[in-house]
Amino acid sequence: MNKIAVRDFNLNMTLLGGQSFCWDYDGSYFYGFTSARIIKLKQGMDYWHWQTYPVLNDIKFIKEYFRLHVKYNKIISVISKDKYVNRGIQQYPGLRLLKQPFCDTVISFIISANNNIKAIRKSIRILSRMYGKRIKVDDKYFYLFPKIDKLANARLSGLKNSRIGFRAKYVKNAARCLVASGLEKRIDKMSENQIRTELINLPGVGDKVADCTLCYGVALDDVMPLDVWGRRILSTYYGLSPKLSYNAMRVCTRTHFGGYAAWAGQFLFEYIRHNFRK
Fold this sequence. Notes:
The chain is an alpha+beta fold. The chain contains 15 helices and seven strands. It has helices spanning 11-15, 59-65, 72-79, 83-91, 102-111, 117-131, 148-153, 156-164, 167-181, 183-186, 192-200, 207-216, 228-238, 246-256, 261-275, and strands spanning 2-5, 23-25, 30-33, 38-43, 47-53, 134-137, 140-143.
């Protein structure tokens, strides 16, 4: 395996939290899957041992997926001025944001609608076994996240067998639209609003799923996805009226968190999820 120096990166909290549903930990290694790569990781004190499959030694993928270029300490210094976010930083040091493949992210968060993390993870694994490519890593077999064209061409009855229920039609139809529009290939030349507009037009995608995609699949630092709990946090702790529209709340987070609303939101999400959702 390869070795890379990495500091201030909490793999457990980052990979097994609510931003990605495609990671597992077996007690020694983290294993993750996307539509392009299987990733094997082991965390040391200030370094990782890592490997990618089926393409070996793909350091470019590792650096981009884990966003290793970000100035993490600068981000923390900006958002820690907020006392509620600071509680999350103190409890979960090293929590990071990922940049996952765009289409994987869209489909994952369509599946997340009105769903819990355990069920989402299970459904995505079934879906991957059904439609993803099988890859051997050491003595184990893993499955890539399904390519978007495979989902677009899948039978609706087959998709339902992955236990995604009513979301099956949205997954299929959104996949067909993504294939037809070629959106993933165009996003680097598009503005945030242009991408959001096209996302909102996809079947099964509303404000929250669009913002999850912008945050976790496009890596926009100032986009905080707002679910019911997120809106409740802003109302309870930040004094925003619960009657404010989703867009109005989004604008407030962008201003308040100094351009790093996505990072602040992740700390708030994990803090609330572990301390108040019981």
